Amino acid sequence: MSAGGENLVLFPTIAHQHKASGTWSADVHGWCFDGADDFHFQRTAASFLRRALKIDRNQPDPPFFRERAGGFVVENRKKVVIEVAYDRTNLLAVKTKRNGHFQTKINLTISDDSPMATTTFGAKKVSLTAIRKDCQIDQVGGCYLIPDQGLSIISDIDDTIKFSNVGNREELLANTFLRPFRPIEGMPELFNHLAAPERSFHYISATPWQMVRSVSQFLSEHNFPEGSVHLRKFALKDVTFLKKIFPAYKKKRKVVEDMMFRFPNRRFLLFGDTGEKDPEIYGDIARRFPDQTLGICLRNVSPDLPGSIRFRKAFTNVSPRKWIIFEDVLRLESQFLPEMLGTYQNQIDNN
C-alpha cells in the first residue's frame, strides 16, 4: 500500500510450528520506501539503464521500463518503526534497516477460530499486517503455514519457469526490463499438477527485491501455485551494478539449506536449470541431505549433453534415479516425476 509517495510492501513468507507449544513461528520480511518522482527517475534510472539497454535518450520510456526500473531509484526509509500483527493482535515492532527492509519473526497462536485462508490447492495460509503509523499506511501479506511433514517444491525462476536467457547479457537485460515475462512452456501446468494440500512452493531468483511486484505479477498471471518468494538484496551504487545484478549462487544455496534444516521431516523436489551453477549446487545439497532430497529436475539450457562429464561430476555419489536433465516437460510428466512421487508415497506409507 502507498500514501503519497510512501510505500510499504510485505513479502510472501512461511511459518513453521513448534511441537512443544503448538505455536507457529512466522517469518516477516518487508520493505519501506518513497517512490521516485519523474524528475528523479529520469536523472538516475535513465542514465544507467538506458545506456545499457541502448535506448535513445529522446525515445519515450518503452513498455515495462518504468514499472521494473523504478524500484532501483526509490528513497529507502531507514530507522522507521513498523508494527507487525496477526489478526490485529500480538503487535511486534521492528525498525527498518538502511536499505528500507525489515525482517523479524512473530509467534502466532492459531486455533480453530483463527482467521485462516487456503490456497487454490488447499494449503493453509494466514495474513500478516505491517503498519506504519507515522504516515498512516498498512500492508497485508501472505504467510504460508508449512506442516512438519510433506513435500516442498523449491524452484529457481530465471530460465527454469520464466524465459530470461541468462547466458546472453543483452538479451537478459531486455527480457528483464523491456519485454513481457514469458513462462517456460508447460511449467505452469506441471506445477499445478504437483500442487496438493500438504505440499508447498518456494520460488528463488537472483532478481533483486526491487522487482518483487513484477515477479509476483508474473507468477499470478501465469497461474503458478502460490508460495513464498526469495529474491536478492541489492543496492544501486553506480553503473557497474548491471554487471553484478544477477549472479547469486550463495543466495540459492542458503535458501535451500535453511529450508532443509528448518523442516527436517519434509522431502524436497528441486527445480533449476543448467545455465549456471544449479547442477553443482543441487548435487552438493543432495549429498549433504540425501534423505530429504527426493529429486532434482534441471532444464537444459547449456550445450552440455545430459550424460556429459560436467553433470556426472556434479552428481557424483547421487543416485541417477534422483536427478534428470530435461528439455521437454513431457518427459518429466510421463516418467521421472511419477517415479519420484511414487517413491515419496511409498515413504509415507512405510512411516
Automatic annotation (TrEMBL):
Regions crossing the membrane: none
InterPro entries: APP1_cat, Mg2+_PAP
GO MF annotation list: phosphatidate phosphatase activity
N-terminal signal peptide: none
Domain of life: Bacteria
Domain called Phosphatidate phosphatase APP1 catalytic: residue spans: 152-300
Protein name per the record: Phosphatidate phosphatase APP1 catalytic domain-containing protein
Source organism phylogeny: Bacteria, Pseudomonadati, Planctomycetota, Planctomycetia, Planctomycetales
